[in-house]
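Predict structure. Input: diphosphomevalonate decarboxylase, 323 residues.
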Amino acid sequence: MATAKAHTNIALIKYWGKKDQELIIPQTDSLSLTLNEFYTTTTVNFDSHLTSDLVAIDQHILSKKEAQKVVHVLDIVRQLSGIKSFARVDSINYVPTAAGLASSASAFAALAGAASTAAGLKLSNRDLSRLARRGSGSATRSIYGGLVEWQKGTDDNSSFAQPILENVDFPIEMLAVLVNTKKKKVSSRSGMQSSVETSPYYDAWRQVVANDMVAIKKAIKAKDIDQIGHIAEENALRMHALTFSADPGFTYFNGETLTIIKAVEDLRNQGVNCYYTMDAGPNVKVIYDRGNRSKIVEKLSNIVGSERLVVSQPGPGIKIWNE
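Output follows.
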């Protein structure tokens, strides 16, 4: 039996589209910031008395269909370790599930850490990153803290994340605006596949990401929060342009998303430097220098209420312990 704690990450340069659905090999590289405020803890116990895998999230036992992706990762662990037993998986999400707040990233990173350790495997962080990827693409980055790059690679061995700057030593913060924490109607998985297959702009997106990866790494090296924020904002808008231009077109935004975007732009016009990004969901994340926090919180509290704002600093990498 083992337990792992992994934190969510929010992509500054987005992952949007797979080259290989089975292995979850992405179409492009990506880069993210791990957050300290949102995380998942997961305990895995391989038990010879069990007659099937038993998966519980937030004390709710999943049906066989709901547990498919979890069982898939457990099967890979059994294959690697030679263990034959079924497992009991207990996962607690300190993140709203399937609302565009990267709950699957922390969940599958924690699962990879707990399951592999419980099975007696001593995986390196790189191999943990590869294993987490098999559950959810973005989970590959949640093995590490701080600023993390996922190298797309070409196969299972070469597609993994690595840290760019694990201990972030400049005052970047991210404010999550919880617009809607309900489960989204279009999953990330189906949304990105539709974009890859039907958006006429998908080829241009690959080039956008290649350029943005070079630019944001320079900005990180220079500790230039404004440049990091600007690149992340433009990259997010271009990712969401793929959803609008798919066939049929769709969007993760709602009216409140657009209200928050306008508020961030208004703050910027008033000289308060801050930038927005959105994943596959309506929730907005705001990137800024810690010194600007109070002005941003004040403005957005007036729109959505302070209880729907969560301030987050860069978070740590995975922690695993044996029970």
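The chain has eight helices and 14 strands.
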